[in-house]
C-alpha cells in the first residue's frame, strides 16, 4: 500500500485516503500545515508534533483532521498514535487573543449561522485582526477547473456592521492565475499579516446585499460564481 519513495516510511495520509489501517513501521510521514514531516516513532504528543515545525503550544493550538471531515483538538500533552486509522493530517491555529482573564478568545465573533456553516462544511478557518480590520481566513478553498492552483486560502474582510453590511470581494494566497495564461482583470495585491494577498475586485450591484438573507454562505457562493466566470475566460 505504501507508495512513498522510501518503502520503510509509512505515509499516513495515503492509508486514510484508502480507508486502510496503517501498518506498524519504523517511520511515519505526516503533514502539519501542508508541510511533510517524518517521525521515527508512532506515538507523539501534541507538543512533539508542534515541535517538528518549531511551534510553541502556548501560542498555537493543534488539530487533527481525520477521514470523514472530523476535526479534533489535540492538547499539548495528549498522545496521538500515527498508526491509528483515518488520520489525514494536522493543522494549527494561532492563539494570540485573550479576554483578559487568561482564557483564549476569538478576535471577534461571527454570527451563529456562519459558525454553523463553517462547522457543517468541515472548513479550516480562523478570524483575526490586522491593522484594526477584521478578517476571516478559510484554508484550502477548492477552485474551479481552469484556475491554478487547484486550492488556495481565501480571506474575507468582515465589516464591523456585518451582517447588516456586506462582505465585499475576496483575497487569495497563493495568487491565482488562468491555466491557459489568459489575463484576469481587476486584480491587485494587498498586504495582510505581512503577506501579499491577491485581491479580486468583484462587487455586487447597488443594493445587491440583502440584510437578513445574505451571509457568509451566500457570499462564498458569489465568490464561486465569479471564479467560475474567470475560469471560463469571462
From TrEMBL:
Pfam families: Multi_ubiq (PF14452), Prok-E2_E (PF14462). Residues 28-94 form the Multi-ubiquitin domain. It comes from the Bacteria. InterPro entries: Multi-ubiquitin_dom, UBQ-conjugat_E2_E. This is Multi-ubiquitin domain-containing protein.
